[in-house]
């Protein structure tokens, strides 16, 4: 039986949002969206506000990623929306079901030059699954329901609605649409069988599992498939932690050896993009398993590419009835390489050199991070080390900018993570370059009593640009930052706390103080600018 709702546009929107499990709003105050605040305030619906709209969208995206449900950002008209476009674009690349509700100048005066009058839709349409202007208060519940259904339908992604002033401030009366679960996409059974046969018959198969495995709630199915077929598993994005580090099929350090020698590479829930060499694995056959047909690679011809609900596909792989090759020797070969790489990493993470090497920072972090801690990467060079040296023990505990590579996610992700998990450690790993994008939102965290730990790797340069540019041209420009800058003093000035660390031996005690502080605490680590992450350019 449908429910009728009435009230102003903000009340109608909130009724539909609640029905979809949305439980909080991230925003930066603006008059065009006052009715949404009014509806939230009168019903004790939590509002978290920020100092830059991008942080509101990033916070909503963190909620969407971590909780596998819609996250909500509310932005005022004009610059409020345009300031959030980078967040929307990141959510688009990361397949995060984020809803952005925007204010809009009044329609009855359109073209007369109202404050912040602009048509947002042409800007946001390319980076959203659904974008619509809702011209009537009565139509708001329908529009919110349609947008959130689109956001949650694989391949998931962000959606956008804006409300002209007369729409959201007016009183309306409408039926609240029923919320129906999104039907799973059924993959072609022949394509699934072809993939299963290739994996089972391979001599040296590997699996690479990405963020959509977590987003699609397919972690258990992945483990079952890997164990049934005895295939070693590597991960990226939010796939990290899908198998705990101690699992006999979990690998992280031997990826180069694995991909160089594999005869079948199974990529699940992540695109064949620059992070995976654009899907070029030499002579190996590629099986690309995706959650929707739209995600099949267009630049590579896989040997098989099942598209559909990842839980169903992976369960079918686990239940493959055909013959299976023995992969024990292959797994053992990779384990030798993995153990050797771990030994090298352990030596680097214990380096006692000054200036501090980035590896040592992560060696000390590993000692204090709990198994369920959420680590957030916001940076280039410094965060590249995090991907190498940190091994999440559980799924759903790793957030990074994803393939769009947008800096500035840190404080918004931290806010969304703290709201999602009030009792866990939240640790932001931030380059000093990235600190320039969002550090002002430490004030938002302080004011709303959302403690997090921020570790800034401070080498005084744009590391991923300075060293390659110098190698290419013999010089570099626009790649230097102020050396030794006291980012901890910025955090203190904004109401938090912090300290600068210059000696490797002081790292451990500083991190312990940070996690015990109970307030946003910034550990400003002066790292060696000559120690750049060793990887080739990913520009092409």
Automatic annotation (TrEMBL):
One of its GO terms (biological process) is isoleucine biosynthetic process. The lineage of its organism: Bacteria, Bacillati, Actinomycetota, Actinomycetes, Micromonosporales. Residues 192-317 form the Thiamine pyrophosphate enzyme central domain. InterPro entries: DHS-like_NAD/FAD-binding_dom (IPR029035), THDP-binding (IPR029061), Thiamin_PyroP_enz_cen_dom (IPR012000), Thiamin_PyroP_enz_TPP-bd_dom (IPR012001), TPP_enz (IPR045229), TPP_enzyme_TPP-bd (IPR011766). One of its GO terms (cellular component) is acetolactate synthase complex. Pfam families: TPP_enzyme_C, TPP_enzyme_M, TPP_enzyme_N. Transmembrane segments: none annotated. Keywords: Thiamine pyrophosphate. One of its GO terms (molecular function) is flavin adenine dinucleotide binding. Residues 9-121 form the Thiamine pyrophosphate enzyme N-terminal TPP-binding domain. Its cofactor is thiamine diphosphate. This is Acetolactate synthase. Residues 378-525 form the Thiamine pyrophosphate enzyme TPP-binding domain. Belongs to the TPP enzyme family.
């Amino acid at each position: 039986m449908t429910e009728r709702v009435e009230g102003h546009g903000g009340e109608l929107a909130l009724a539909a949002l609640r029905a979809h499990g949305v439980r909080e709003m991230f925003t930066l105050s603006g008059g065009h969206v006052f009715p949404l605040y009014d509806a939230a305030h009168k019903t004790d619906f939590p509002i978290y506000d920020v100092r830059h709209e991008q942080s509101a969208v990033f916070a909503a995206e963190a909620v969407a990623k971590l909780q596998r449900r819609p996250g909500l950002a509310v932005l005022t008209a004009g610059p409020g929306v345009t300031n959030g476009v980078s967040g929307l674009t990141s959510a688009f690349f990361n397949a995060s079901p984020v809803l952005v509700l925007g204010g809009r100048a009044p329609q009855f005066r359109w073209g007369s030059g109202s404050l912040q009058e602009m048509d947002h839709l042409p800007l946001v349409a390319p980076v959203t699954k659904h974008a619509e202007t809702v011209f009537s208060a009565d139509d708001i519940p329908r529009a919110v329901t349609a947008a959130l259904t689109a956001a949650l339908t694989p391949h998931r992604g962000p959606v956008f609605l804006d409300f002209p002033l007369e729409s959201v401030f007016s009183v309306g009366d409408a039926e609240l649409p029923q919320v129906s679960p999104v039907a799973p996409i059924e993959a072609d059974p022949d394509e699934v069988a072809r993939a299963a046969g290739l994996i089972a018959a391979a001599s040296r198969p590997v699996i690479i599992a990405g963020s959509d495995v977590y987003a699609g709630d397919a972690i258990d199915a992945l483990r079952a498939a890997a164990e049934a077929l005895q295939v070693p598993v590597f991960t990226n994005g939010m796939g990290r932690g899908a198998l705990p580090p101690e699992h006999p099929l979990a690998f992280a350090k031997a990826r180069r050896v694995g991909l160089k020698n594999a005869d079948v590479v199974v990529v699940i829930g992540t695109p064949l993009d620059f992070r995976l060499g654009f899907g070029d694995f030499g002579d190996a056959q590629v099986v690309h398993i995706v959650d929707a047909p739209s995600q099949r690679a267009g630049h590579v011809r896989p040997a098989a590419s099942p598209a559909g609900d990842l839980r169903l596909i992976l369960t079918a792989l686990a239940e493959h009835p055909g013959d299976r090759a023995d992969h024990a020797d292959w797994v053992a070969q990779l384990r030798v390489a993995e153990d050797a790489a771990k030994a090298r990493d352990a030596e680097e993470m214990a380096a006692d050199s000054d200036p501090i090497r980035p590896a040592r920072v992560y060696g000390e972090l590993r000692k204090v991070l709990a198994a369920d801690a959420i680590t957030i990467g916001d940076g280039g060079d410094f965060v590249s080390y995090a991907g190498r040296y940190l091994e999440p023990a559980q799924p759903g505990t790793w957030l990074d900018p994803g393939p769009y590579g947008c800096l500035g996610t840190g404080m918004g992700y931290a806010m969304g993570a703290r709201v999602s998990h009030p009792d866990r450690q939240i640790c932001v790993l931030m380059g000093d370059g990235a600190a320039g994008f969002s550090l002002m939102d430490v004030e938002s965290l302080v004011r709303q009593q959302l403690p997090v730990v921020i570790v800034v790797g401070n080498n005084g340069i744009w590391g991923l640009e300075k060293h390659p540019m110098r190698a290419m041209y013999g010089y570099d420009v626009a790649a230097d930052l102020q050396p030794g800058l006291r980012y901890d003093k910025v955090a203190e000035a904004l109401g938090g706390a912090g300290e600068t660390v210059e000696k490797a031996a002081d790292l451990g005690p500083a991190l312990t103080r940070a996690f015990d502080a109970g307030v946003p605490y910034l550990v400003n680590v002066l790292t060696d600018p000559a120690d750049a992450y060793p990887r080739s350019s990913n520009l092409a």
